[in-house]
Amino acid sequence: SLAEVFLPEEPGAAAPVGFLQQLPSYQSALRRRNASGGGTQGYSAERRGAEARRLEQEGGELVARPAREHPLSIAEKRRDLQQADTKYLSGWEQWKRTSNKSLKKVLNEVKELSSYLELWRHDIHSIEGKFGTGIQSYFSFLRFLVLLNFVMFILMFSFVTFPSIISKYGIFNSTFSKIPAQNTEPHCTVYTPSGNKGLVYFYTYLKDLLSGTGFLEVTSLFYGYYTIHTAWFSILSYNLPLAYLLATFFYLALSFFWIIKRSVEGFKQNLVHDEDQFQSYCNKVFAGWDFCITDPNAARLKHRSLQYELQTDLEEERLKRKIADRTVKEKLRIYSLRIFINIIVIAVLSGCFYSIYRATVFSQENSSDISNMNFQANLLVQYLPSIVITLANFIAPQIFSFLIGFEDYSPAFEIRLTLMRCVFVRLANIGVLLFSLWSQISYCATDECKACGYNYKLYPCWETEVGQEMYKLTIFDFIIILAVTLFVDFPRKLLVTHWSFKPVQWCGLQEFRISDNVLEIIYGQTICWIGTFFSPLLPAIATIKYFIIFYIKKISLIHTCKPSARPIRASSSNFFFLLVLLIGLVLAFIPLGISIAHIPSSKACGPFRSFNTSWEVVPYTILGFPTGLQQVLYGIASEAFAVPFFVVICLIMFYFMALAGAHKRVVEQLREQLVLESRDKLFLIRKITEAQRH
């Protein structure tokens, strides 16, 4: 019978060795061993075969049966195995295992309870259920930025703002001391904030609130407020300049490692999805459906999305074949066209950058001259850089989306290239704004100005001026998002719903484009990272801003927008969001590093007015340490330590690269084993079919 041919006579007996050696997996392994060479391996195979024959002849049951052979449930098998292991443990090991189990159970319960306290947990799950994981990833990303900015605010408030406030007002018997700027000309220390005096109209307060001038300029919102050098709490001294600088470094490092930690998971999933094209097809066909979707419209959209993804994959395969079949003449034509289009792109970027530069220079030169301007004109002049940057962020992506269609790229590459160009425009615009400000700050044409190191007449406290620009960009960005939702999306929804005019119906509802919305908030977050050094309470404003934007976008998504017809996968979108956010953070390092280490600090305001640059507080503090500690710190900062440290880091990096290569080879071998097992199954099915026929 079939059982007699393929199965052992007793349940615990070994399988026939001759039959097992016919399996394709055994034959492949045998060929691999013979090819790699060695009679030793052949001998070991013969020895294993003899051992298997001995077990077969004995017919006895194996001493240790695998857990899967026990006729019990998984929970019972696990419990029995644990009890069997416990018998051979000492009392201390048993108590240790029991304590670890109890601790793990408590931690799991605490984690489960804390999940109910998670911000917007119900709202995000509701969005995920109606619109899928792609749109849900945007709102999860927005929640991450809210938490990040809140932590940044707690950090800056605890170590910078709070000690300054309590020492200035003498709370907890605290006092403070100020060190005047040394070796500095008297005219460099003159700073008169533009505070409001006498009778003030209401619209003046409104202008100050929008531009950060007037009564806001002398508050703890900006850099110029923090003029204390040392705060004394009873017998303890607090070095505010050092705390200010270290808090800046710490919130940048915290942001960097937090982003890296979150991006690792998305990077792993992205590698799994993008590794093999055949695997991508299998994932779309057999595992592409999002079972979180409950809304019928979202389900139809998901159907279209899967159809679009499959069409895109097929189109990419067709384009690859078309590219391979291109003649030299066609290649010359397409490359010439791409070069021409990239020249146009560079020209558009240059026009945007020059417009921002001219607008910034004009605004800085005329914003202080309010005698010949009314309220609206003065506010327009102050917000002119923000307006030009917003227009550039809107117009340039439209031009890029139009030009990309002529470059004959694959659909997936078109999306990535357009997004990277838009990212570059948004982040580079901030850099051009800062460059324009610094060119005005460092411009000195007289000896008096050169004695200060910066343009003391136009910028007596230049850090506060930069902080005000970052504040205005943050406020204007929020106003634009709110205005577009109220005055564009809602009227468009009403027109499409209640007016059957064909052009209106052809336009349809506004799509909720995930990438564009993400670029908006990453642009705002980059501003916050740069501006926090010049405006320590800016993270609090960013936290409130993103908190309100969450509800604005949620209402807009549910009532005025439709999901994009070309959504991107949640795993790849999360990784892309964090990658762009990391680019924004790296961009923030550059201007902050230049401001801290290169540009002379203001001599009329701020905690660093007694130092030439903000960084000089570090060596000044080290001079107060004991001699032995100074030598250790100087040794760490020397080349004698830096070069070996760099070598060790390189060796560690090479080790992990080799380890990753080894893991990759193991994964490839496991895949080969899976393929061989599938061949074994086909072989067994074929044998069973032949036996049934006979």
From TrEMBL:
Belongs to the TMC family. It comes from the Eukaryota. Its main location: membrane. It is a multi-pass membrane protein. Residues 31-51 are annotated as: Disordered. Keywords: Membrane, Transmembrane, Transmembrane helix. The keyword Cell division does not apply. It holds the Pfam family TMC. The chain crosses the membrane at residues 144-166, 242-260, 339-357, 383-406, 418-438, 575-599, 641-662. This is Transmembrane channel-like protein. It is found in: Membrane. GO terms for molecular function: mechanosensitive monoatomic ion channel activity. One of its GO terms (cellular component) is plasma membrane. The keyword Metal-binding does not apply. It comes from Probosciger aterrimus. Residues 461-571 form the TMC domain.
